[in-house]
Amino acid sequence: MSDTIPHPDQLPTTRSSLSVWECHPVAIRVPRCPSHNLTMRFHLRPRESRDTRPRLPPVDVAWIEKNRRPFDAHEVGSLVPVAFSRYARLFHPAWAASDRRDTPVRWDAVAAWSGRTMHELAQWETLSTPATDVDRPPPFIAPPDADGLPQASLPALLEVLFAYTSTPDDCFIGVWEGYGWPVEAWAGPEVLELENRTYLVRRGPLSLVREIGWKPAGDRLHVEPPNVLWPADRAWFVASDTDLDSTYLGGSVALVDAVLEHAGLEVWPIAAADLITVDPRPDHGLLTSTRLPN
């Protein structure tokens, strides 16, 4: 990915403008798309910010920046503050239909088809490529979504999160400012500025997560997932990224156990120091070869 920051006039205005990222079949007819789990260098902001928008009060957010690891470490702790007893990775499903609605496909089902090993550091580009010749079509047409947990999985996560906070009616819900849709119309006036990411934030009940989005035409809401989410009591923290196809969670042992046991989610436990990318640096190698054979 390039380190060049595009001029604002070159940025897409809607999600539909991102057609360059649409997936195309390769010779073996396995749907593929450019890797969004490579080191996160594409969506970076200029070093000097002239942003004068109001920030969330330090009393509410200082703990996040204090406990997050450097962005370029590309670790779970680069997204989720290292302030919890346990962490988990929620895998965004692939899709059995091109409209990406109501047809989720689990990663372990793809691994069973491709002959690969499913594990907590699995990466889509490897997992979805058959290890040997296969005599049946893949169980998916479209790869997992980046940005955040899709609507097929989000309600299941919210169900668990609600039970593990004393402040379900007082939560912070953030959406990355770089999306093409009018985030400002949904969010409050204050922003959360972290290293290389700024989020437009709305504070309120956890149920507000279901209302994130915009109406491009008519009254039908185009739903979008949150990128950061945490309650006022700091019982847990959920984070995704515009360049990743998984969501990460930090919380208590009981919370992570509950998420792991939920049939509507594909989750693996993970450590705060685990990498979140296929890191091409020679000293790290591919994730799929550093922890488990694949």
Q: Could you give a short account of the major beta sheet?
A: 8 strands, antiparallel
Q: How large, in whole angstroms, is the Cα Rg?
A: 19 Å
Shape: globular
Distance from N terminus to C terminus (CA atoms, Å) equals 25 Å
Trace the largest sheet across and list its strands. 7-8-6-11-12-13-3-14
Report the sheet-strand fraction: 15-25%
Structural class: alpha+beta
Number of helices: 6
Which stretches are poorly predicted, pLDDT < 50 over at least 5 residues? 1-29, 279-294
Helix content: 10-25%
> What is the tally of beta strands?
14
- Return the average pLDDT rounded to an integer: 81
Order of helices and strands: EEHEEEHHHEEEEEEEEHEH
Keywords:
single chain, 294 residues, alpha+beta, eight-stranded antiparallel sheet, two-stranded antiparallel ribbon, 6 helices, 14 strands, 15% helix, globular, disordered N terminus, disordered C terminus
